[in-house]
Amino acid sequence: MTDVRDHIQYNPDTGSFKWIARGQKRRLYGPAGCYDKYGYLRIRANGVSYQAANLAWYLTHGEWPRGIIDHIDRNPSNNRLDNLRDVSHGMNMINRRRWAKTVLPRGVYRSGHGSYCVLLRLLGKWTYIGTYKTQEEATAVSEAAYKKQWELSEKHELERRKTPQPKVDLRELGFL
User: Which residue in 40, 57, 59, 139 is a FRET match for 68, CA 20 to 30 A apart?
Assistant: First the structure.
């Protein structure tokens, strides 16, 4: 089996992929892949279906991502390299978009008294931030809290990745 690099070319400035090898249902130098129902570009090569963001990371850095590739702008079809980052699952969950059909931003809820309350899931726990008279105030506080959480989580993630995992000697544990 050949490496995927022999079949696909990636442009990090545009986030586009094109075929550089002929194959079944492929047009040489034509666009590679198709979009799934969630808006992610998927590319099938060597009988394996890849998410384009993971492929972009591999083609650029020469190694598969350690965690999950996060789209910074939350647009799953934007595969430009400056929009992608390799993060843990927890970090990716911080950057997810709100799926509820509401015009209010993430973490902002309308209270029964015409004011807006900010309730966020910070570092795994629901946290009440406060109640504000206007939606703009509540939105600003919510965005600042999420940004601070991202910075703290990113710092923690970098420290965790730098720390080598201890090697376990199975003989010491009595398994060998």
Answer: 139
